Amino acid sequence: MFGIPYDLIDTPLIVTSNNPLLANLPSNKLIHYTFLFNTFMMMNLFNEINSRKLGSKDYNIFASFFNNFLFLVIVGG
Description:
By secondary structure, the chain is mainly alpha-helical. The chain has one domain. The chain contains 2 helices and 2 strands. The two termini are 30 Å apart.
């Protein structure tokens, strides 16, 4: 998936090596899981911005976007 090859069952998350320069490198499986987690977090951020207006006639989600300081702190955090 996404051009990242690995075996779903047998691939460890961390590749260990005897060489100190190459010790504890992330495997392709860990890179793929990180990519999927970041995609999920970006979807949550978009949903947070999109669902801040709940009225039936509130079509512009960016209207008065900078008026709510607590919302900006949460999105910025």
